[in-house]
Amino acid sequence: MLGWTLIFLVLALVAGGLGFSGVAGAAAGIAKILFFIFLILLVISLIARAVKGGSPKV
Predict the structure, then answer these.
(1) Which of 11, 22, 26, 56 is deepest in the core (most CB within 10 A)?
(2) CA distance 20 to 33
(3) DSSP 23
């Protein structure tokens, strides 16, 4: 799950870069939402991995 979260976080950052540069105005709003959703998922994944006792594998 951590791997998927990182992939989608990178996709959200790319979409945000395109949206904020004026390529697509609607992509900026979507990218903001996706960025925060997947940032939260990343934190949850890291906490769950720490509680479970394993080392993080990227």
Answers:
(1) 11
(2) 13
(3) S
Cα–Cα distance list, 33 to 9, 36, 47 (Å): 11, 5, 21
Q: How far apart are CA 43 and CA 32, in angstroms?
A: 17
Length of the chain in residues, anyone?
A: 58
Q: Fill in the amino acid letter for 24.
A: A
pLDDT in the model for residue 12: 81
Residue 32 to residue 48: CA distance in whole angstroms? 24
Place of tokens 């080392």: 55
Rg value, the chain, Cα: 13
Gap between the Cα atoms of 41 and 5, Å rounded: 6
